[in-house]
Design goal:
By secondary structure, this protein is α+β, with helices and mostly antiparallel strands. The chain has one domain (3-167): NADH Oxidase (3-Layer(aba) Sandwich), CATH 3.40.109. Helix content is 36%, strand content 14%. It has 6 helices and 4 strands; from the N terminus they run H-H-E-H-H-E-H-E-H-E. The chain has a 4-stranded antiparallel beta sheet with strand order 1-2-4-3. Helix 2 (23-33) crosses helix 5. The radius of gyration is 18 Å and the shape is globular. The protein starts with a helix and ends in a 25-residue tail after the last strand.
């Protein structure tokens, strides 16, 4: 697969086969992802890998409950269609994917969001190169239960930045239309 083909095949997948992703494959993907850049080569990203559908469902339920609570208390704004989805007991924010990877890191790291976003990109490309689908699920980061976080091995003072689902896609969605680059200005060295 060429790099261009890889860019085209990396899509947000929300419909997966029931097939489990082997932990060996996840480990290979994470090993490749450690090549992602980070500020000052700090490498602040840590991972929680969940290959258990029941646990993933519990995490979905926790996130949904916290999001709805924030919405009701006017601490979060959600579109009406998201509110209805979150109220639906059958809706799983992780789309019943067979594997979930949380990318987490210390809240004290100022570049954490950027570092984790770069790491997430590398994970998504490494997965796509193996025929796997992924999707960043922002709705899945709303965990507050200390016992649940402890069960996941997320230390105090760390936060979830990127919840990524991963699995064998039923199909690769077609890319949505993209706008041309919006270049505000190009400043070039004058020829001498």
């Amino acid at each position: 697969m060429t790099f261009r083909e890889l860019l085209q095949k990396r899509r947000s997948v929300r419909d997966y086969e029931q097939k489990v992703v082997a932990i060996d494959i996840i480990n290979e993907i994470l090993q490749e992802a450690t090549l992602a850049p980070s500020a000052s080569n700090n490498q602040p990203c840590r991972f929680v890998v969940i290959n258990c559908r029941e646990t993933i469902k519990r995490l979905s339920d926790e996130s949904k409950a916290n999001l709805l609570k924030d919405f009701e208390q006017k601490k979060a704004s959600l579109s009406p269609e998201y509110v209805e989805l979150l109220k639906n007991d059958k809706f799983n924010v992780f789309y019943n994917a067979p594997c979930l990877i949380y990318i987490v890191g210390s809240q004290a790291v100022h570049s954490l969001e950027i570092d984790c976003a770069l790491m997430a990109s590398y994970i998504m490309f490494a997965a796509a190169s193996r025929g796997l689908g992924t999707c960043w699920i922002g709705l899945g980061a709303y965990l507050r239960d200390p016992k649940l976080k402890a069960e996941l091995g997320i230390p105090e003072g760390c936060r979830i930045v990127a919840p990524l689902i991963i699995g064998y896609p039923k199909e690769i969605p077609a890319p949505s239309p993209r706008n041309a680059p919006n270049v505000l200005r190009v400043i070039s060295q004058a020829k001498s």
